[in-house]
Design goal:
Length: 174
């Protein structure tokens, strides 16, 4: 899942020009730091229940904590860095639906369900039942957990400044 974003063009140009003067290993190290910083930021969003912009996620109707009940989505966040970029994302199949929201009819495929209670009473042993394919209205409110907003842009600029200072200090030490 990819999220597109706009970035301060002047800052981006300054960073890009400085990175172009670095070797590929140094650029990859920078992008690794950016990936780690963004992943940490998105993890904090999960702990706070907020989007990258800082807005609280909409509550869920059935109770519980939005996107946090099982911790599966948060635990799936990873990043990958190259000498040209970094990507932070998830491979969880319901990630895009949570990020962007869904309001449409979907087809639920035929599946088997374990029935543990009937008519309000618990069954002594579970019964497996085949459920036929059917349509279901899916209405999931968007709860963005990835994205590059102003706070993340500032973080990237800070990581860049710190990294360049460290490279300068290394250059002065040799």
């Amino acid at each position: 899942m990819k999220v597109q974003t706009k970035f301060n063009e002047k800052e981006l140009l300054r960073i890009r020009q400085a990175l172009d003067r670095l070797g590929s290993n140094q650029r990859k190290a920078f992008f690794r730091r950016v990936g780690a910083a963004l992943k940490a930021d998105f993890d904090m969003g999960f702990r706070r229940g907020k989007s990258p912009r800082g807005n609280a996620w909409a509550p869920v109707l059935r109770g519980g904590q939005p996107l946090r009940d099982t911790r599966r989505l948060q635990g799936s966040l990873t990043f990958r860095a190259t000498s040209d970029s970094t990507e932070v994302g998830t491979n969880v199949d319901y990630g895009p639906a949570q990020q962007e929201g869904v309001d449409k009819a979907v087809t639920v495929p035929t599946h088997t369900r374990l029935i543990n209670q009937a008519f309000g009473r618990k069954l002594s042993t579970g019964v497996y039942q085949t459920v036929k394919s059917h349509k279901r209205k899916m209405n999931i409110e968007a709860r963005p957990f990835l994205g590059i907003e102003r706070p993340q842009q500032r973080k990237i600029v800070r990581v860049f400044g710190q990294y360049m200072r460290e490279l300068g200090a290394q250059g002065n030490a040799t």
